[in-house]
Amino acid sequence: METLRLVLLFVHILGFAALLGGLLVQVREETKAVNPLMRDGIGTAFLAGLLLVGVLESLGSPDHAKLGVKFAIGLVILVLVMANMRKPSIPQGLYLGLLVLTVANIAVAVFWSPVHA
């Protein structure tokens, strides 16, 4: 079970790396858009996160508050990305919001009491 937890954690981190990479490649571009890297990254991170919670539940009692916050932020990012996937461009505010939410979700994972210790 520990190996499955580590594999899911690795996939979860890769998903957020892809999402953040998809956002950061557009920093200097005038027109921002939701790209496939962002879509695939948040989809992977969200699904791996859900599966990871199931594994963590079977291994003990994880911090449900932290998981709830991460779930809520991830769900907002997922909805915003999917709702704007087909649009040729997105407003600068939405782009910055996605960037802030992504960094916030990573910060919650790193700085909140460790679930994966």
Structure characterization notes:
It is elongated and about 45 Å long. The chain has 117 residues and is mostly helical. The chain has four helices and no strands. The chain has helices at residues 2-24, 36-59, 64-83, 92-111. The two termini are 14 Å apart.
The parts where pLDDT drops under 50 for at least 5 residues are none
The percent of residues in helical segments reads: over 70%
Order of helices and strands: HHHH
What value does the average pLDDT take? Answer: 94
Q: Evaluate the radius of gyration.
A: 15 Å
Described by its quaternary structure, the protein is single chain
Strand content: under 5%
Global morphology: elongated
Terminus-to-terminus distance? 14 Å
Largest sheet: none
Provide the structure class: mainly alpha
Helical run tally: 4
